[in-house]
Amino acid sequence: MKIRLSGGVVASGRHAWIARPSGPQRLLDGAAAHPGKPVALGPEEAPADEVANAVRELSLLVADGGAVAAGAGVDLGAGFRSARLEGARGDQRDAVLAALRAVGLHGAHRLGERAGVLVALFGPAVTKRVGAAAGRAAEEGRWAALHLASAASDVLGPEQIERVLALEAPGGVDLTPGGSPSVLAGYLRQVLGPVPAPRRLALVLDLWERVAEHRAGLARREARLATQSRRDRLEDLRARRRHHDDEHIVWQVRMDLSDENPSLADIARWTPGRWYWHERLQRAFADAIAATALLRTAVAVADHGLEDGLERSAPVLRAAASLMPDWAAGKAARRVPGLTGLPARPGAYVRDLAHRLAAGRPMDAKTVGYVRPRLACARDFALIVFEDIGRLMGDMVGTHDDLLREWSPSLESWREAAGYDRPPAEWDGIPQWSGPMLGDAEPLRRRLAPGQDPATVETAADLLWYTDLIDALARLHGHERAQPTPGTGDPWFDHDPPPAGEPLTPRLDSLMAAVSGAAQLVALGGVPPRAPRTWEALTAGLMSATAIAEALTGDFAVPTPLAALDGATVPGTRLRLKIAHSAREVAEWADHMGNCIAGPAYVEEAKEGRSGLAGLYDADGLLVVNAELMPLRPASRGWRVSEIAARFNDAPDETLERRFRDWVAAIPGPAEDEAAPVPEELPPPRPARRRPAPRLVEEAGPALGGLALRSYAGSAPEALGALAAVAGTGPDAALARLRRFGGPQLTGAVGRALDEGAADLVRLWTASGHRPLRSALDALEPALRDRYDQLPLLLGEPPLPKTLRRLVKRPDVADAYSLDLVARRVRRAIGALALQDAPVIARAFAKPTAEEPLCALAVATTCAAPDIGLVPVMPPRTTTVPGFPATTLEDEEGPWQRALPAARDLGADTAVFWDEIAEHGLRVPASWLAHGGWAALWSRAHTRRR
Fold first, then answer.
1. pLDDT tens digits, residue range 413-467?
2. Where is this region: Disordered (predicted)?
C-alpha cells in the first residue's frame, strides 16, 4: 500500500500504526487520521510485540519533542521509523531540530546519517566546521542558537552561521519560546532578503543581543519582585500606621494642654501649632528615605545575592537609619494587640538591618531568616508612604506654604551614601508641590551652575528625595526609573508603566516576535534602509514607510451573518469568537500573534466584505487563534475556514480546529440583498440630501457618562477595596494595575489574595459582580441604544472599535468601563481556579459562604467537566438537588437558573449544561465536600448573609 507522508513523500510497501488508548492501530489509509498525525512505519508482517514497542517509542518521542519530531524519521527499533501523515506544517528542519532536542546528542544516530541531519538543518552548503559548531551547541544545550542558525541558514553563509552557532543566551533565558525554525526562516528571508549580504550577520547578531537583553530584563524583574511578600499587607499597614499616628497626636494634645485627660471640648478647641506641621514633614521625609533604602537593598539582594547585596547597600541603610532616633524606632516597632506585627514605620526595619550589618554576623540561615522578612515588605511601605505624603501635601499646599518654605532638613549624609539616580541638572521638581515649597527660588536645574556639586545646592523643597523613592520602586519592577504622569495627581509618577508602542512595532519578547513583526512591516510595503547597521535602524526604516500608516486605517464591511456571531462561544470549547471590524484591530492581532493577518491581501478582502477575519479568545481574554472566513460559491451556501493558525503560524489544536470548522460550516450565507451583484450601470443619485452619519460619542456620550458616573459612585467603594487586595496596591491604582495583568497572572493574583487572606471568596465575588457600565447601558434611553447598536460591545473584551475607544476615554465613562472589564476578568480567574481544583476554593467552601458563588461554580465545573476529581451531587437525569433548603434545577426563579448567567461570566459554555446533567448529573470537585459532604456545604451557603 502507499502512504502519503508530510513533505510529499510516498511510502510504498510499508504500513503505518498510530497510538490509541486501546493500543496500536494500523491505518488502512490516511483518511482515518488527522492530517500530520505521527505514525510508526514498519513492515506489515511485524509481530505484535514489535509493533507495540515501536508505537510506545513513538509516544515517548512525541511526548518529549512534540508531534513535529516524528517527521524526522527517528529509528523506533525493529525496522520501524517515525513519520507524519501528509498535511503537517513546517519542513524537515523543524522535525530534525525537535527530534534532536528530544533524543539528545547521544541519540542523534537514531535520526540517520550525520550528513543528512546537517543538510536538513542548514541546507546543502553546510560545511564540516558548521557541523562541529552545531554539535558543540547541542552538547552545551544552546538550543536557541541552533534554532536561529538553522532558520538563518537561508540568508547567511557557512562562516556566518558559525558565528551564530557560537552565541550564548543569558543563563536561564529562552530566546525562542514559540515558533518553528521554518517559519522564522521565512520571515528572515522577507526581512533580510533586500539587505546586502555582508550586512545580514551584523543585524542577526544585534537582534540576538537586543532580545537577550530584553528577556534578561524580564527575568530580572521577576527575581526582584520575588523578594517581596506575595501577601498584600497594605490594609494591615494602614491600620497600624493610623493607630501609631493617633497615639502620637493624643500624646501631643495632652502635652500641649498639660492635661492627662482633656475633655472633648478642650480637644475640639486645640489647634495644631507650627511644630505639628514641621514634625509631620520630618516624619514623612524620614519614612521616604527609609523605604527607599529598603527598596534599594531588596533590588541589590535580588541582583547580587544576599551577602554582596547587603554589603553594597550598607551605606544607604546607615544613612537612612540615622534619621530615626532610638525612641521613635522603639515606639514604631512596639507590638499592638489585634494589629499587624509589622512596624508602623519603615525606619524600624532599616535600623534592624543596619545594626545587623554593623555587628558583622555571619551570613548563615539565621541571618537569611532575619533579613528577608524585613525586605519583603519594602514595596508595601513605599506605597503607604506615597499615600501619606500625598495627604500631607494636600493638607499643606495652599494653606501652609510659609511652613513648607521654612522646612529644610539636611540631605548631606543621604546624598553622600545614595548619590543621584536622576540628573540634578535636568530636574524641574514637581511644580504643584515644589513650587509653593521653593517660593521665589528657581528649580534645581536653574540654580545649579556647571561643574557645581549638586549636594551643595539641593534642598528638600526640590523633592528629589521623593522621586528617589518612586524610582526605587520602579527598579524593583524592572524599570530604569519611574515615568512622569503629568496632570494625573499624586504621586505624579508611575512606578510600573505599561509598555508603550504602536501596533505593528516589532517587539523583542522573543526572536520570533521581533522578526515576524519586521516581516509584517515588509509585507505592508515597508522598505529596509539601504545599509542598516543595527536592528533598531532596520525596524525604524521599515516603520517610516507611508504604507504602514495607511495599513492602520479603514473599517471593514463585516457580512451580517458573521457580525451576528461576534462574541459567541464556539460550541464544545471555551473560546470566544471575535470578528475584526478595522485594520487597526487586525494590526494589534498581528502584533501579538506574529503572523501576516494584517497583510494587504487579507485587509483588502475584509474591507470589501469578501471575507471575515476572526480571532478566538480563551477564558483569560488571550488571543490564541486567528482565522480567515470565506463565503462558499454561491455565497448563499454558507461559509468555510480558508485559513486558521495559532501563534507564529503554528497549527492549532486539532480538536479545536475540527469543531471550529464544523461550526463555521453551519453559518448561513448572506441575505440575497447583501449578496446581490452590483449592476453595470448605477442609477443617478437622488436629489434628496443624505442623512448625516450618526455620531455616537457626541450624542450618546453625555447621557451614558452621567449614568456611568452615578453607577460607579455607588459601586466603587465596595468593589475597589476587594480588587485592591488582588492588585497589591491601593484602591486608586487597583484598576489600572489589574488591567495590565494577563490571564494567568490575574488568576495567580486572585489565588494569592484568597490564599493569604487578603480577600475572601464571597467578598471578591460581590466585588466582581459590580458592573457600573452595564447598569448605565441598561438605564440608557431605548432610542439611543437602538440607534447605536455598537454599544453592547462595551461589555466585551478589547479591542474595541475606534468610536468606542473614543467613548471609553471620556472621564465620566473611563472608570466605569475599567471596573466592568476588571470585574469580568476577575470572575473568569475565579472560574479558572475552580476548574484547576485550586485548594483556595475548597478552603473558602469549608467556611460559611454564599449561595450565588457556590451555584455558579458548581454549574461551571459541571459544564466544563475538567480532568479533576469530580463527585456527583445527584444522579444523572434528575433535577432535584439534595440539601436544605430544597431546590430544583428547572425552577425559573430558583438559584440554579439564576446561576447560569454568572456561570457564563466564569467562562462556562452553559449550552452543554443539560447534556452534562443527563449524562453525569450535577458534579463538583471532591475537595469541596471534604467537610461534611454536599448537605453541609449547601447549609454553609445559607448561613452567611452578604
1. 999 999 998 999 999 999 889 999 998 899 999 999 988 999 999 999 999 999 9
2. 480-503, 670-692
| Same domain (yes/no): 450, 301 | yes
Burial 213-223 (b: 16+ CB within 10 A, else e): ebbbbebbbee
Residue of 495, 461, 481, 464 lying closest to 288 (CA atoms) = 464
The 10s digit of each residue's pLDDT in 310-344 is 999 999 999 999 999 999 999 999 999 999 999 99
**Strands (DSSP E) found in 179-269:** none
Helix axes 895-905, 851-864, angle to 10 degrees: 70
> What type of residue is 647?
R
Q: 729 and 660, same structural domain?
A: no
Query: Are 143 and 278 found together in one domain?
Result: no
- What is the CA angle 145-103-11, rounded to 5? 105
Query: Among candidates 397, 407, 400, which has minimal Cα distance to 435?
Result: 397
Euclidean distance between the first and final Cα of the chain, in Å?
70
Q: What is the pTM of this model?
A: 0.61
Grid coordinates representing 289? 528615605
Domains of the chain: total: 5
Task: Count Cβ atoms below 10 Å from residue 723 Cβ, excluding itself.
Answer: 27
C-alpha to C-alpha distance for 515 and 506, rounded to whole angstroms:
7
From CA 345, how far away is CA 656, in angstroms rounded? 55
The more confidently predicted of residues 1 and 413 is: 413
Which strands sit side by side in the sheet containing 576-579, from one edge to the other? Answer: 576-579, 612-617, 623-631, 639-645
User: Tens of pLDDT along 775-830?
Assistant: 999 888 888 877 787 788 888 887 777 778 888 888 888 889 999 999 999 999 99
Do 9 and 151 fall within a single domain? yes
